[in-house]
Structures are given as structure tokens and as C-alpha cells.
Amino acid sequence: MIYKVSRIVALLVFSILIIIPSLIVVFGSTKTDSEVYNKPLALPEKWSLDNFRFLFEVSNVGRSFLNSVIVTGFSVTITLILASMCAFAISRMITVTGRVLFSLFAVGLAIPGQVNLVPIFILFNDLQLTNKLSGLVLINIVTTLPISVFILTAFFRELPKEMYEVSEVDGATPLRVYRSIALPLSRPAMGATAIFLFVITWNELLFPLLLITDNDKRTLPLSLLSFRGEFFSNYSMIFTAVMVASIPMVVMYLLMQRSFIAGLTAGAVKG
Amino acid sequence: MGLPGAIIFTGFYFVPFIANLRYSLTRWDRITEPEFVGFRNFVNLLTNDDLFYKVLGNNLRFTFLVVLFQTLFSLIFAIFLVKNTKTNIALRTLFFFPTILSSVSVGMIWLFMYDPNFGAINLFFTRLGLEGFALNWLGSESSALYAITFTQVWFHTGQMMVIYIAGLQQIPQELYEAAEMDGASRWQQFRNVTWPMSIPTTIVVMAYTTIQSFRAFDLIFAMTQGGPNNSSNIFAVLIYQTVFSELRIGYAATQSIFFIIVLVFVTLLQRKFLNSRYEK
Asked: Which terminus has fewer CB within 10 Å in chain A: N or C?
């Protein structure tokens, strides 16, 4: 009895704690600012998309959106290719090379990006990779490579050895085995890793903040942060920007809940 | 095959990490040439820097509280939602939802929630007649770090809950049946079956949460930038400020080295503590 009551109370409280802020944002993006302040929880007096129109007019959030799409697209794709090649090499090479490769990424996993903030800032300045989307793609690849290698290595190791051996006897090169056998078999693991990478890259703030000063090169999280300064505490505009930054992720989450949850916890379990 | 990835990673992550050690021995503002100062930065940091100790304290307190509450709540919700019923699956989807948002979005949402005049939190307390609880949450030194702690736990509890659910579903059902036959209460079942059987998952959850909380740069930067008066500052934000506000590259490099030392130390301590529990 006590268990049942406390269960319902706890679930209810946490549900409310998630639903109310979400509703405030969704409603807020269609309200005027004074409405947000005076009646944050009430339904909007009239649903309008004026805030969105205004936001796209006065700011370059459209440009930021496009930048985010470009940076995320390239980062995720290239990371997946490189990581799957590394993971394949690690799982197939029982020799020293495989172990060295594995240790390299294991040590890398232990160094959070924040620790490397100073030297990366200097290196990217020296190489003139600041204020470039390609610079952001590069740093995203480097920071997400270790965790992706770990997730994929764990998967490749579970594939039956015979699969590889048969094709090797037939004289297939490692590249061919990777392309024709390992990749097709690893589609679920690649999918989970892709979602994981997609979410963290889309939401990344630290390195864009470090490397981008040009307005036209901002990604969405960076724009969102700058709106706080520009619109000060005009929350109807801030909430509109939060909506723009979150909608792609939310839509995908609703369409593929299972894969999202699997992808975003794979990183934690395998890492 | 692994070569392209290994080369890029070494060149753009590993080599910089080593270069960082060299920067830590210099005084450098990026305008003039770096000046070699030996271990002076390290001595300064340890003997003459109150801010460093304040931030260290904040960081440890933040990590401790986030790990404690995030682990506790995610375990409780996992136990409540472990059965695969329709309602439970819907609730899991809802609880996991904040995880997919960006830290900056979450920061903006909670900036409003905590707003001293208009925020939903204070509205709630005043409606209940508890004006005493209606604080300037993020604006006061005594509450800012705790307000962010709450947001961080809100942000990632659902993610850890899903990991716990996967762990709990591995526990053989017979154990519970046997416990029930022996007349064990729910609490006794938890003490003697669920908790010991879920310690491996707890290790994963706590290790991940620890690293996650050390990396909470985005959220703190979006909400308070470490303020007021550095009361919510943690290492990651401090290093950023030392580079960009103070232009002290060498000193920031030294701070990063302490950052990783503390992180490794905390992780090892935690592992030792949990492993000793596990072996019992």
C-alpha cells in the first residue's frame, strides 16, 4: 500500500516536472512576452507563428540552423566511417597493432574535451581552422572518435569469427571483408552509434564557443546562447529559439523512440 | 585499416594534450612570446589561489550531489517502471525526453523556471503560501550551485533510469519468487535481491554520471557562467574564463592538468569503494 502510493506520487511529480516546463516553452513560443510573464502556464490567447517569423527576420537563426545541419551531417558520417574502420582493425588484429590502437582510444576516452581546451584552441588558431565549419567538423570527429570506437569494437567482437575466416580463405582483402561482411552485419550497431553521435554533435556548445566568433558561422546552441544577450529576458523569443533548436531532435525522438533510447544508452554502457 | 582514425586522433587530440604540459610551464598571453617559468604556475595554483580551491570545492560538491541523487532517483524510477506495461513504457519515454535536448536549451528553460519574479518555481511556492521558499535561486551565492544541481539531475535521470531498467530486467525472476515464498517484504526483497544484483549497473551509472557532471560546462555556462561571485563555478568553466577573460594561457593549462588529476582521483576512489562492496 505504502509502496503503491509512493510509486504513484513519485511518478506523478516527475511527470509534472517534465511536462510543465515543456508546455511553458511550447506555449511561450506562440505568445507575446507579457503573456509569458503574466500567465506562463495558460493557453496562448491566439496561436500565432509571429515569433518564429520575427526570429528568422531579425536574427540569422536560419543560417545557424543550416550550419548545424552541415556540421552534424559531415561530423557524424566521417566519424562513423573512421570509427568502424578502427573498430574492425582492433577486433580483427589480435597482434600488437590492435592492442596499441585500442589503448590509444582508451586513454583518449579518459581525457574530456574540457581538459584539452587550451591546446586545441592554440592549435586550431595556428592552423587557421577557427571560424570555419570544417574546423568544427574536425574537432567533432576527434572528440567523438574514442567513444564510437568503443561501442563498435564491442559489437564487432561479438560477430562470429567464422564469418571472417571463410572469406579470408577465399582470398578477400581486409578492406573487402570490412565492406562486404562487417559493415552489412553491423547495421544495428552503426544505427545506434549514429543516433548517439547525432544528438551530442547537434547539441555541442564548448568547441563552437571556443572556435567560432563570426556570426555567420554559428551553430544553433551558440546562437541560442547569444540570444540571451540580445533579447535579454525576452522569453517569448528565447523559447521560440529553443523550439527551433529542439524540433528536429524531438520529431526524430518521437518517430524512433526505441533506437534513440538504445543509442543514447549504448554510449554509457559501453563507455 | 585503423590508421586514418588513429592519425587524426593522435594529431588533433593526443599531441595537443602533450603540448598542454609544455604550456603549463610558461607565462603566456598570446600577444607576446611565451616565457618559460618552470613550475611557478603549479606553486601559485596550490599556495596562492583561493579561487582554485573554491572551484575545486564546488566541483566536488556538485559531482557528489549529482551522482548521489541521479543514481538514487534513476534506481527508484527504474524499480517503479521495470515491468513492460503500456503505461510504464510511455512514462519511460517521457522521463528520457530531457536527455535529447541541448544543455543550452535546458539552461534557458530553467533560467525561466528559476526566475525570481515570474518563474514557475516561485509561483508554485507563493501559491502554496510558502513565500519563504521563493528565493532568487540562481542569483544568490548560497543557492546557485544547488539550483544547477537540480537541473542537471532533471536532465539526465531518465537516461540512467533506462540503463538501470536494462540491468534490473536481467535479474532472474526466480529470486523474487523464492523471496516471496519466504515471506520477504518489498523492502527485504530490495535489500537482499534487487540491490546486490544491481551493483554492476550501479558501477556503470555512477562512473558515467561522475564524468558527465565534470563535463557540465554547457549547462553552467548557459545558466550562470559560474556566478554569482564564482559560487557555481566548476573547473571546465574556470579554464575557459582563464583563457578568454584573463588571457593567461599557461595558467589555464596548469588548471587543466589539475582538472584531469582530480577526475582520475575521484574515479579511482569511487571504483575502489564500489568494488569492495561488490566483492562482499
From this structure: N
